[in-house]
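Structure tokens
________________
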Amino acid sequence: VQIVESGGGLVQPGGSLRLSCAASGFTFSSAAMSWYRQAPGKEREFVARISSAGDSTNYADSVKGRFIISRDNAKNTVYLQMNSLKPENAAEYFCKKYPFGCWGQGTQVNVSS
């Protein structure tokens, strides 16, 4: 199993980023996928989940209405569109198969003016 996150970077408050997660080593189209994040000094927390077919999603209350999780099963990739970013959204973002799976290396998101 391999999970590779990308797309992080530095963005100003109110800006947007789209994270990508490329997965391999398992039947991606049969797996629910999720995004988590971990800020310095804090525990890793759930951000969003998407069903295997992409027809059901769940979000942490703190990101509802601003973040959108989606997937492309033909590309074995799951995305996290992050809009209206706030400084408190800065963290290392991770992707994994839901509920159990391997973690990738993460991608760093910084939100600062």
In short: The chain has no helices and ten strands. The longest strand covers residues 17-24.
